[in-house]
Structures are given as C-alpha cells and as structure tokens.
Amino acid sequence: MKKLFLAICAALGCSMGATAQNAFDNMNVKDFEALITSDSIQVLDVRTPAEFSDGHIKGAININVLDSSFMNVARQKLDKGRMIAIYCRSGKRSAMACSRLAGEGYRTTNLLGGIIAWTKEQRPVVK
C-alpha cells in the first residue's frame, strides 16, 4: 500500500512539473552568447567562488546561489531594471537562481547546460 501511494504521488508530481510554467527563459549556448554581447545584460555565475576561479564567462558577477546570503547579495549587486543572464556548471543551480530572482521581479534567462555546454561549444572562459 505504501509503495502504491508513493507511486501515485510521484506520478502526480511529474505531471504537475511538466505543466508548470517557468518565470524565465532557457537559452542554448548560441543564443546566450548573442544575448550577453549587449552592455545592458548582467551576466551572473551562481557557482561557488572556487568553481568561478576555475574559469568563468568574461564579465560575469559571482554570487553563490547555495549561500544563505544569496538574495541579499543579489539585491545589492544586481540592477533590477536590466536583464540577468545566469549560468552555473550544468544549468540546475542557475535555473534555481532564475526562479528565485524572477520571484523578486528580476528578468532572468538561464544557460541550458551551464558552463559545461559553453566550453563544449568552445566558447571562451576567463581564469
């Protein structure tokens, strides 16, 4: 009975997740790269400082989304009137950051596949 209940809950969770609307856009590497060429775009790397120092997109601001002070630091450093292009390692943490920031009224977009996809497409990083 317990297994049946868990299976039903899992199925409902999947179906609800599949119909949920994101409050942000997801972009592939090509579109993300074109977007961030504009001076009006803020580029945000939400990985840890150690990950950031291993290589990041030129001009990116680093605010660790897993840090408890993420939203406070974001409010201080990010301009709510400008679009924020966000990335992480694989796209999961940046999607979380996009969602959190969008909930606060920021306009955000997420790099699908994160810096892994970026470097796989042989785009430049700064160390």
Automatic annotation (TrEMBL):
- Per the record, a Pfam family? Rhodanese
State the signal peptide span. Answer: 1-20
Signal: is it a keyword of this entry?
A: yes
User: Which keywords annotate this record?
Assistant: Signal
Q: Which residues form the Rhodanese domain?
A: 37-127
Does the record's keyword annotation contain Signal? yes
UniProt name for this protein: Rhodanese domain-containing protein
- Whose protein is this, by species? Prevotella micans F0438
